[in-house]
Amino acid sequence: MSVAAVAEPPRRPAQWAVAALGALALAGGAVFLGGESWKLGALFVVGGLLGVSLYHAAFGFTSAYRAAFVRRDISGVGAQLVMLAVAMVLFAPILAEGRVFGHGVVGAVAPVGVQVAIGSLVFGLGMQLGGGCGSGTLYTIGGGSTRMLVTLAAFVAGSFWASLDMAFWGGLPSWGSVSLARELGWGVAVPLQLGVLALIWFGLRLWVGGAGQRPLWGAGLSWRRLLAGPWPLLLSAGLLALLNWATLLIAGHPWTITWAFTLWGANAAVAVGWEPATSAFWSGGFQQAALARGVAADVTSVMDVGIVVGALTAAGLAGRFAPTLGVPMRSLAAAVIGGLAMGYGARLAFGCNIGAFFSGIASTSLHGWLWIVCALAGTWIGVRLRPYFGLQN
Length: 393
Description:
With 393 residues, the chain is an all-alpha fold.
């Protein structure tokens, strides 16, 4: 397998005002939230570090899958396999114990069924039109993408829309939540999943043949590169696994993203007169409590905002924060359609590429494996639709 020579983007002078604004927002937010709960303050910082890690390596799930389909470049997918393996090993002893630092911990385990299959397929299609996944939408907004603000608004609308339809989708065939660790034991489930990841890697290597690949590590790390990027894919893969583990330790559950979008949509609807009692989904105890607490007390919302702020800081250090308003109408249409599809699909599938795929597989949940298979099918469709909206593959 040949490795293509990938030129690093030209160095730009740091935008210190942007970087300072991001750093001050991160520090100020951590202090403010920490006054309410040390966990919220700590998770805001974890979110910020996730944003830096995602931005500095351009660690995208959407672009990684598209590169694999279009150019047979599996570097991004390979980095994800490493990320999953590291997270799985880190998660296992904590989830096996069920407690850490005096509080309970749970994995990202959700039902396996037709609802998840449809939702993840719709999400996969949507992320190719929207131009980013759950995490990608947030970190590119922090990096200055105005188009992704449109995607996010549609993402929020789609998430809330799906929540109103959950009674219908919940009636489709389902086989319940299946945790491989619960069924087989951690001593079997983790080696089994690691073996599957290894087989996928070797299968992909055979499939790509001599296609050029983006280096997983590339040139050595200097202090300047650590500060301003770009980071090697493997560095960010390891950091994302560690930060997801940190989320598990602090929050008691793994990293998630899209629940916050559903909550934001519901709060916006309440503000214009919608009554949550009219929805079976929003009449649930957890949902009612989340609405009563507000966004600032929601762990997922706090981390999502932290990702945006962290990416803003990283973009300033890299000298690449450059918002633009000139977005073609076809591209905006794709952002709206893609955002709606991602929001709707993520709610049906109990999460996106982070909550369902990354955290799900790290928790040995079978729904994480179903998610990625169906999301890749949706991605294949989405890649072929992109040219109709003036989007390059």
